[in-house]
Amino acid sequence: MKNIKRLSILVCLTLLFSIYGNVWLNKSHAAEVAQSTTYKITQEQQSMNLPQGYTLQVDNQSPFASYRFVHSGSTALEKKLQMATVEQVVSLEVAGQNYILISEREAGSGAYLHLHLYLLGDQEVKEVFTSDKLYPQADVSVSNDQLKVTYPIFADDQPQAAPLSIKEDDYLLQNGTVTLQKTVAGTEKKEQDDTYKIKATNTNPSWKEISDYLTTAAIAHNIPPEIVKAIAWQESAWQQFWTSDPDGTGPKQVGDPVIGFDGRGLGIMQITLAQSYLDSHPGLENDLKYDWKKNIDYGVQILDDKWGYGGVTNLTPTINDNDKKNLVNWYFAIMAYNGFSKINDPHFTTYTPYQDLIYAHMKKYGLIDVPEVQTADLDVYYNTGSSRMYFNNKMHYTIDQVVNSKYAFSKGQTLQINTASVGLKSDHEANANVVKVLNIGDRVTVLDAPTNPSDRFSHFTYYPVSLSDGTIGYVESAYLTDSLTNNSVDNTSGQTSDPVSTTPSSPTVQQPSFSDLKKGSYGYDQVAALNKKNIIFGFSDDSFRPEASLTRLQAALMFVRALHLDTPNVKSTGFNDIKVGSEHYKEMAAIKKAGIFDGDGNGNFNPNQILTRGQMAKVLCVAFDLQHKSSYTTPFSDVKNNIFQSYIETLYGNHITSGLSKTTYGVDEKIKRVDFSIFLYKVI
């Protein structure tokens, strides 16, 4: 009986210990593991009392912020920051040791975050960790002995305010060492400030209003509007307020201000300022969130300030004569708008540098091709423990090319067309009817001030012009020049040019030996250029037959030459009707391997079959990897629900086609040899 009682007591004690002992152990472990206090830096000068008698003094005075640890009246450690501020300080105790985690935020719309962890000793402060990863718009939190960094992932042609996905890096602090444990999918913060309650009244102005104001603000600062429009596109896709939740998962609501992932980038220009600066300027944050014009003004002023960095030690180099009109000269100012993080170093190939994205937007949406500083010529270095670029070793660059803004032409000025087959349009819209086709060297007279189109995918402007025969119409600004010579044209995205030549080369317009295609006729310049590159040829009777329909074989051969596809010996061409050993069998095998042409249901290529305009759209997109986007649409009534709709929308969205008329593309029409030559020329 006594043994039974003893056993019962033992069981009870075991159960009690298992319940309360574990609770005690967990509490004891939690207390030992981590206690933390977070300080948000809300003032330009702020002090914090830290453990072990230390004081941390933060000075966020722009542009040279600093912080220092003070102990017994003496400075134990001091760090000076360039183009960055202190955003947050976390004091944490782990296993009886006191650590200070400092979040440094770089200036610029990139808002790159750097983490520095310091160990407090009796008389000294020791840095034990510096984040070597590059975190744009990141947010950091501390939980026990874990540091969590949440950050967005962006696609190249996606606004910075709408990330493609979200990641979380989990770090473990143990025995004075910080190690990255894992990277997992993250989630966007759900909290919203109280000002969002008025979101029902927040609507974006029209695209034309935005385009007009971007133009006006840029010109007021003597900045090429092409640059400002491209930056606004990269930052927000020209939106001050969300029209939808872009990624479908976040807290964004229609009418909310466009705010970056980290809660710092504000509005159409993604103005990114330290919270301490915003707090010391009452009303500024609200203006940047809700007043789209003030947001643009502020962003353009920032860009102008970045231009002023040129030639200043520890800031940026200059290019050429430092003339603001030349888009070539803006390389470093554009970079500075986003930040001097290593992410924007073209030697660092993990990401596409911000300045490269902006110049790509100018080419795609502004139709103007601007040469950049060559990576091999760019002299960049880094200080120890820093991912901030410095350029002091080389503070001037020369790029022997001038690409001036196209917004400065004036009424009465005589200009020339700088590329082949430019449509003189009936109106200042991308889908307007073509009144007449103009070619290189044709002269026009400017009738009045330019007018911006009403869509956000056209970053150029339209000039009303007249021809010598009295014809009146509109021409895209990118296709006009006041300095055309016999052997050069302005650099536009419709043609290939040598980025290091003194002047960009024009399509070769030497007389090809075609009896039925004369200089000055429709498509002549494109055919001549392709002929010079050995991409297109005529017939044995010296004719080109521009109005003849194009066969699948003829198109395939042009693709092989244009893409320089390998044509090795093969055992099979992949097409039942193209036998090994037959004429052009190697080229057909190359086309099949590249996936440009599909066979019919019986596996045949049908080389003599005529290509339609719809089929042409597909093979062009496939051959040159032109990707469709949900934003692409067309005004063509015969395209809707057609199997080639997405391909035609892609060509239209990239300004490669304008259709047979304002509302008709001609999906099932046979493609003419001259028309295909023009399309192919525009793509390559």
Automatic annotation (TrEMBL):
<dbReference type="InterPro" id="IPR001119">
    <property type="entry name" value="SLH_dom"/>
</dbReference>
<feature type="region of interest" description="Disordered">
    <location>
        <begin position="489"/>
        <end position="514"/>
    </location>
</feature>
<dbReference type="Pfam" id="PF00395">
    <property type="entry name" value="SLH"/>
</dbReference>
<dbReference type="InterPro" id="IPR008258">
    <property type="entry name" value="Transglycosylase_SLT_dom_1"/>
</dbReference>
<feature type="compositionally biased region" description="Low complexity">
    <location>
        <begin position="495"/>
        <end position="513"/>
    </location>
</feature>
<dbReference type="Pfam" id="PF01464">
    <property type="entry name" value="SLT"/>
</dbReference>
<dbReference type="InterPro" id="IPR023346">
    <property type="entry name" value="Lysozyme-like_dom_sf"/>
</dbReference>
<dbReference type="InterPro" id="IPR051465">
    <property type="entry name" value="Cell_Envelope_Struct_Comp"/>
</dbReference>
<feature type="domain" description="SLH">
    <location>
        <begin position="575"/>
        <end position="634"/>
    </location>
</feature>
<protein>
    <recommendedName>
        <fullName>SLH domain-containing protein</fullName>
    </recommendedName>
</protein>
<feature type="domain" description="SLH">
    <location>
        <begin position="510"/>
        <end position="573"/>
    </location>
</feature>
